[in-house]
Amino acid sequence: MKNVLLTGANGLLGQKLVYALKSRNDIELLATGIGQNRLIDQANYSFQSLDITNKTEVDQTVKQFSPHVIINCAAMTNVDACELSQNQCWDINVNGVKYLTNAGAKLGSHFIHLSTDFVFDGEDGPYNESDTPNPLHFYAKSKLESEKIVIENCVNWSIARTIIIYGITDNMSRSNLVLWAKGEIEKGNTINVVNDQFRSPTLAEDLATGCISIMDKNAYGLFHLSGPTRYSILEMVYMVAEFYNLDKSLINPVSSKSLNQPAKRPLVTGFDISKAKKELNFNPVDFLAGIEIMDRQLKTQNEY
Ligand SMILES: NC(=O)c1ccc[n+]([C@@H]2O[C@H](COP(=O)([O-])OP(=O)(O)OC[C@H]3O[C@@H](n4cnc5c(N)ncnc54)[C@H](OP(=O)(O)O)[C@@H]3O)[C@@H](O)[C@H]2O)c1
After folding, report:
1. Domains of the chain
2. Secondary-structure breakdown of the chain: helix, strand, coil percentages, each rounded to the nearest 5
3. Which of 150, 269, 270, 293 could be stapled to 117 by a disulfide with Cβ–Cβ 3.0 to 4.6 Å?
């Protein structure tokens, strides 16, 4: 039996991992998150409130549960909010990781951490695991620093970098590209969408499957886990509109510069995922297939 401690369990990836792991009879799952459990299905696993910036709480939880594996999905993920609230961002994305890795290292736990394509500057994507990071904004700097801490503090570590996660979960605290575009256009709102940023969008279930492969294979090191195809953000939003038969005239193509966002985004990222394909049998769906999967989930959710 493996004890698996999951942080950030209320988040998009966290929830997918809970649902994927909770029924496995070789795993004892302790899901943790800020505040109450927001998942609808609370059977077959334990939930405990855990703020990863609280060192005492982290130490106690890790000591009591003795995890063989820690999967850290907790993070401050809103890039512009991180730019504007840098202390809070550092506390969650860096100090929290310090506390978790220090506590886990005492037990020799396998530490699985999540990071981002934003560690790269977007000058010449797609990127593979040996490319050199050059973060452009504060969120990216905090995530790169967290990677360094994981590598320094843990003997048995894995870092899964990913790109634009989309999916549907219970009681979501944040939207994502697909839901945002669908929601705004359905309301009849015009949306400004950048035509000069290129990414490989990742279905949350695929990312969860990749993380579970890392755990099951005890795979070590850096892995790039994203969807298989790169699109501009504008192309992705057009695909969402096309799928739902929405009014495309409400989509207003703009340049990144014109948006004047607090955090400067890298332009061209995307990943070379051949290492994950080979070592983890990672086989993510393309964006259109991912939208179809999400749509089926939305329909089921609306039946309740
Ligand atoms: N989303 C993306 O497009 C994307 C892209 C690249 C990389 N990533 C990385 O992938 C990972 C998972 O992302 P995600 O999309 O699942 O993010 P998410 O939905 O924002 O989930 C993050 C979770 O962390 C929780 N959290 C925040 N502060 C915490 C604290 N101090 N202690 C414990 N939990 C805390 C949040 O709580 P609340 O729910 O209460 O806010 C949330 O449930 C993150 O490491 C992120 O940096 C994400």
Report:
1. 2-172+202-228+270-285 (3.40.50.720)
2. 45, 20, 40
3. 269
